[in-house]
Amino acid sequence: PAWSPDGSMLAAVGGEDQIKIWSLASGQTLRTLGGDFDHIEYHCLTWLRDGIQIAAGGQDENAQSGVITLWDVPRGQLLRELRGQEGQVNQLALHPGGTLLASASGEGSIWIWDISNSRVTRRMEGQEKPGAVKTIAWSKVSNQAPIEGWPSWSTGVDVTERKQAEVEREQMQE
């Protein structure tokens, strides 16, 4: 699920391959997007900064490939589709600047999309560990950026060991 930027709505993907939007104030369903007609199995979503559009990621059940759909929520209109990433899209992360969207796939790739023109600006294939990328996030930690020229990019597959090491280091310093 994802909160709208102003916190007034909650969106989630669910049964029947649909995206549902609820009002926080009333608890009522405001809009249902997608469904059986579009043959897309949704797995994730994120609001765009304008609070009007949603990006939803998943898999085209006919083509067996990843797809991201961009929706105008108030009008209930599909605006466009971003296609080509192998495997289902498991996770989306909108850059704080609002024009870049990172998508992670079940095949282990991360693509960066410029949503202003629907083009892929970078493809990162094959993570160190095989399998699906579970979590992606943008960060302002520039000195730890793993991609040259992308000072605000950060990705994580599994930080359990690192987090444990940080806790142990803090305990030793006390």
Give me the secondary-structure topology.
Layout: E1 2-3, E2 9-14, E3 18-23, E4 29-34, E5 40-47, E6 53-60, E7 65-72, E8 77-83, E9 89-94, E10 100-105, E11 110-114, E12 119-124, E13 135-138, E14 153-156, H1 160-173
Description of the structure:
This protein is mainly beta and 174 residues long. The chain has one helix at residues 160-173, and strands at 2-3, 9-14, 18-23, 29-34, 40-47, 53-60, 65-72, 77-83, 89-94, 100-105, 110-114, 119-124, 135-138, 153-156. The chain has a four-stranded antiparallel sheet, with no helix packed on it. Strands 5-6-7-8 form a four-stranded antiparallel sheet, with no helix packed on it. Residues 142-159 have low confidence and may be disordered.
Percent range for β-strand residues: over 45%
Please trace the helix and strand order, writing H or E for each element: EEEEEEEEEEEEEEH
Strand order of the largest sheet: 1-2-3-4
Structural class from helices and strands? mainly beta
What percent of residues adopt helix (DSSP H or I)? under 10%
Properties at a glance:
174 residues, mainly beta, 4-stranded antiparallel sheet, 1 helix, 8% helix, 47% strand, globular
Brief synopsis:
The chain is mainly beta and 174 residues long.
